[in-house]
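can u do me a favor
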């Protein structure tokens, strides 16, 4: 009898533990999906130099396409429409890839880098360490870690290159919708 009670307790604990673990990324996904069709302006909140490609440019994200297991978010830097963050849900984990295109829609030489969250994360943050594809494509980025935070009022996209001073954060105000600059290159 005691063994059955102990087994039941362990089984229920693991079941509830699994449910709690699964909930973070699913709630994150649901919260982000609610922004589908909306665009928001952002600002770089980390220190950048005057000659940085982001300096002095209008920054806009547009949660443009949400479907079964994917969310596409073009990230516009001034008139540059080359960047799209592609989030997919694979095997219960969130994957982030960076799709880079030229103005004619062709793929950039450096595209499809990113990583998959190593666990289900939390409902307000998902973390993406660089995957092997990234390490092969961009060796110096093998120790990149990206993360996205999603609060009621803000969305942040972040990059830290472990072992260096490289840190980049752009924060988008979810309280104020803006006009989208249109489709990202290659996504018309």
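np, heres the sequence
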């Amino acid at each position: 009898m005691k063994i059955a009670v102990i087994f039941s307790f362990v089984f229920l604990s693991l079941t509830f533990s699994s449910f709690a673990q699964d909930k973070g990324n699913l709630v994150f996904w649901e919260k982000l999906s609610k922004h589908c069709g909306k665009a928001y302006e952002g600002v770089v909140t980390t220190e950048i130099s005057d000659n940085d490609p982001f300096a002095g440019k209008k920054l806009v994200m547009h949660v443009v396409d949400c479907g079964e297991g994917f969310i596409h978010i073009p990230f516009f830097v001034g008139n540059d429409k080359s960047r799209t963050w592609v989030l997919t849900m694979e095997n219960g984990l969130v994957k982030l890839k960076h799709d880079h295109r030229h103005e004619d829609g062709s793929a950039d030489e450096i595209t499809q880098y990113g990583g998959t969250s190593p666990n289900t994360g939390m409902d307000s943050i998902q973390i993406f360490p660089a995957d092997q594809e990234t390490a092969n494509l961009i060796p110096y980025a093998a120790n990149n870690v990206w993360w996205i935070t999603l609060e009621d009022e803000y969305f942040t996209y972040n990059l830290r290159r472990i072992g260096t001073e490289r840190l980049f954060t752009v924060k988008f105000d979810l309280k104020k919708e803006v006009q989208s600059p249109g489709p990202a290159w290659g996504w018309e």
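The first strand starts at residue 39 and ends at 44. hope that helps!!
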